[in-house]
Amino acid sequence: MRPALLLAALPSLLAAQEAVTTLKDQKALAITIYNDNLALVKDTREVRLAKGESRLAFQEVSAQIRPETALLRSLTHPKDFWVAEQNFDFDLLTPQKLLEKYVGEKVTVVRSVPNESGAGAKEVREEATVLATNNGTVLQFADRIETSAPGRLIFPKVPGTLRARPTLVISLNSGADRDQKLELSYLTGGLSWRADYVANLSADEKTLDLSGWVTLTNQSGAAYPNATLQLVAGDVNRVIDKLPRARDFEKMARLAPGVAAPKMAEESLFDYHLYTLDRPTTLAASQTKQVALLSASGVPVRKEYLLQGQNHYYSGSYGDLGEKQKVGVFVEFDNKESGRLGMPLPKGIIRVYKRDSEGRAQFVGEDGVDHTPKHERVRLKLGDAFDVTAKRKQTDYKSLGKQGRFGFVHESAFEIELKNAKKEPATVSLLEPLPGDWEVLQSSHPFTKEAAGTARFKVTVPAEGSAKLTYRVRVRW
């Protein structure tokens, strides 16, 4: 329809009789949830439409719908089907809202008074005008004004602007008088997901079993029964709306029991990854639930003790650098088919457990991981070692002044004593960040140049014993 004809048709469209569709008309529902509190909803319903102009109240949409993204189309009779106007009614019906809408209007006040005979009570009805509802109700009766309702209030009708549920009201034109399948698609906030992983270390700490779960949270103000669920992993660019939303319907989510399922199918989508649940699922309003993402057993794992140095050690005289320094405990594994994985892993938290001598699983640490493609390494810091400790001291320092183009030249010597109270040997990696142009002049243990400014030493500490690393380094700034 041409724009001029469309504008001319608007008054009659707005006056058209309103048809209503609810979840009972729903034939299909698909939800795609993104990482950043965003979801795409496709809601298909079978609705009887009269030929010509009409209004459709599409009830039970998300309370956090972005109305500007809504698109309604007819799947069965697209010919001569068009939308002239759509309004999102988010002002929901409550006793207080109903009272506010009647400011300046008349209501009926019903109160009970004793019978003249003294036995029982009777109802007395009076008309009153609602003057105000701020911090209480102000009513004007024929002979007085009262600041609180002396009885129950009766309203003649519900104003058209109040809805029992979030509703998208659409003025449209249909080319046929028949039942039609209509698909409403829209973006909404309030739906989110994250990946959570559980890893169980083997007794020898050489392998782990990994289970991945998707944690879904629905704070959108609507329910999504029997929905086809898809999840997009990746950082989708969005234009952030700096204007405040008209209404925020978010509620605190309550934890629902996890639901076991086969692992999700995965495929590439543009520069992201799409995960599809193999069965419909229901997302109730204000609910958090879990569905299975993946499962892998016997994944080879490597454990590392790591002591991290600081680059300021090499520019001055420090002497003793602390009675005890923390030695971090890391585990890592490869996301490869050869390592019994090889599936793109969405970002999330991996929680690691190990069984004690009685066979009970005990929590030993957790770490967050970013989106991890196939063939990449996953590295987790689980904590700091209790039985493996380190003490570092500077045994010599010289400032050699300026040399050529270098502003400062320093020479330092260090001694790092490592102790191991465990009943088996422990190999500790020491990462030393060396600034500027550096040179290791002497070392008790071999080292590798990990990066331009990093040297890595590896020291094996005997069971219930100790070992010392000594080295001298010259740095030029």
Q: What does this entry look like structurally?
A:
The protein contains 2 helices and 33 strands. The strands form 6 sheets. Strands 2, 3, 5, 13, 16, 18, 19 and 20 form an 8-stranded mixed beta sheet that branches. Strands 17-21-15-14-24-25 form a 6-stranded mixed beta sheet, with no helix packed on it. Helix content is 4%, strand content 54%. The chain folds into 4 domains: 3-91 and 163-188, Immunoglobulin-like (Sandwich), CATH 2.60.40; 95-154, no CATH class; 204-297, no CATH class; 302-327 and 385-476, Immunoglobulin-like. Strand 18 (265-269) and strand 19 form a beta hairpin. Residues 1-16 and 242-262 have low confidence and may be disordered. It has helices spanning 3-15, 95-101, and strands spanning 18-21, 26-34, 38-49, 52-59, 71-74, 82-89, 106-114, 121-132, 138-140, 145-146, 152-154, 167-174, 178-188, 191-201, 207-218, 224-233, 254-255, 265-269, 272-276, 281-283, 287-300, 302-308, 328-334, 348-355, 361-369, 377-384, 388-399, 409-420, 426-433, 437-443, 447-451, 454-461, 465-476. The chain is mainly β and 477 residues long.
Concise structural overview:
4% of the residues lie in helices and 54% in strands.
List keywords for this structure.
477 residues, mainly beta, Immunoglobulin-like, 4 domains, six-stranded mixed beta sheet, 54% strand
Shape, please?
elongated
Which structural category do the helix and sheet elements fall into? mainly beta
**Residues in helix, %:** under 10%
Domain count, please report it: 4
Q: How far apart, in Å, are the first and last alpha carbons?
A: 74 Å
**Rg computed from alpha carbons, rounded to a whole number of angstroms:** 35 Å
Percent strand equals over 45%
> Averaging pLDDT over every residue, what do you get?
86
Q: How many strands, what sense, and barrel or not for the largest sheet?
A: 8 strands, mixed
The total of helices stands at: 2
